[in-house]
Amino acid sequence: MPAGHGLRSRTRDLFSRPFRKKGPTPLSIYLRTYKIGDYVDVKVNGSIHKGMPHKFYHGRTGRVWNVTKRAIGVEVNKQVGNRIIKKRIHVRVEHVQPSRCHEEVLQRIKRNDQLKAEAKARGEVISTKRQPRGPKPGFMVEGATLETVTPIPYDVVNDLKGGY
């Protein structure tokens, strides 16, 4: 166990760049548009030291609450003791990426609205609640045909000759 408790202690592998992803930062990272309320994943880029969040926030998902010239304010949940605190941190754009955590929810909302509109046109009321997967349907196991197996009597003389 290392003795140091510094700001970047135990980050040798955590902040290292992936295999074949070293070198200059692509410009597409700087051209992304972030708006207040967007979900973002904090993913530290070890090659850029400015605006780097603490190692605790690496891999966390939060919501954008502020957008500045070079940084993004992200609100992240942090468990401290027996409570969860909403921490507001400013992180440079190189250390965040858009999160996909909300995509499935938005698709489900769109699909439910479409199903409700179709049901309303038919004059029905449907439930859009998700149901847990039920048990698998039953089936009959086909019985295999029985085959009687009998042992062959042991022959010492034939065994000594190298038979069988």
Global Rg: 31 Å
- Uncertain residue ranges: none
Q: Give the strand tally.
A: 5
CATH class of the domain at 27-98: Mainly Beta
Termini distance? 65 Å
Mean pLDDT: 94
Number of helices: 2
Shape: flat
Task: Give the proportion of residues in helices.
Answer: 10-25%
Query: How big a fraction of the residues is strand?
Result: 15-25%
Query: Architecture of the domain at 27-98 in CATH?
Result: Roll
Sketch the topology as an H/E string, one letter per element.
EEEEEHH
Query: What composes the largest sheet?
Result: 5 strands, antiparallel
Neighbour order of strands in the largest sheet: 4-3-2-1-5
Name of the CATH homologous superfamily of the domain at 27-98: Ribosomal protein L21
CATH topology of the domain at 27-98: SH3 type barrels
Q: What is the structural class?
A: alpha+beta
Protein described:
Keywords: Ribonucleoprotein, Ribosomal protein. Belongs to the eukaryotic ribosomal protein eL21 family. It holds the Pfam family Ribosomal_L21e. InterPro entries: Ribosomal_eL21 (IPR001147), Ribosomal_eL21_CS (IPR018259), Ribosomal_eL21_sf (IPR036948), Translation_prot_SH3-like_sf (IPR008991). GO terms for molecular function: structural constituent of ribosome. By secondary structure, the protein is an alpha+beta fold. It has a domain at 27-98: SH3 type barrels (Roll). The protein is 15% helix and 21% strand. The chain has two helices and five strands, in the order βββββαα. The chain has helices at residues 103-122, 156-160, and strands at 39-42, 61-67, 71-80, 83-92, 96-98. It has a five-stranded antiparallel sheet, with no helix packed on it. The radius of gyration is 31 Å and the shape is flat. The mean pLDDT is 94.
